[in-house]
């Protein structure tokens, strides 16, 4: 599952060109600036989503590894995963 999260994050990043087409001129510098800002925000959200998928892949791998370290000890897994929470 962790591998799938990482692969899908990479595939999602490859869609960058599809979500970031070139911004055309609207004839007004103020409008052009606003359109560019919105386009930049869309790109940032897109990349942020890919980063979150990568993070989830890391967390799944950590949980899996923790489970193996504790040899099917659910309480130990919980303590390991919650180590800086409180």
Describe this structure as you would to a colleague.
The chain has one domain (2-81). Helix content is 77%, strand content 0%. It is built from four helices and no strands.
Can you give keywords for this protein?
DUF6317; elongated; mainly alpha; 77% helix; 86 residues
In short:
Helices cover 77% and strands 0% of the residues.
Task: Lay out the secondary structure.
Layout: H1 2-14, H2 16-19, H3 29-69, H4 74-81
Helix pairs in contact: 1-3, 3-4
InterPro entries: DUF6317 (IPR045558)
Pfam families: DUF6317
SSE run: HHHH
Largest sheet features:
none
Distance between the termini: 28 Å
Helix content percent band: over 70%
Q: What number of structural domains do the residues give?
A: 1
Indicate the low-confidence ranges by residue numbers.
none
């Amino acid at each position: 599952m962790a591998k799938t999260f990482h692969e899908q994050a990479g595939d999602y990043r490859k869609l960058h060109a599809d979500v970031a087409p070139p911004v055309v001129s609207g004839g007004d510098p103020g409008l052009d600036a606003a359109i560019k800002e919105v386009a930049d925000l869309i790109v940032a959200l897109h990349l942020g989503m890919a980063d979150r998928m990568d993070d989830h892949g890391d967390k799944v791998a950590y949980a899996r590894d923790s489970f193996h370290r504790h040899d099917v000890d659910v309480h130990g897994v919980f303590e390991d995963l919650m180590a800086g929470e409180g």
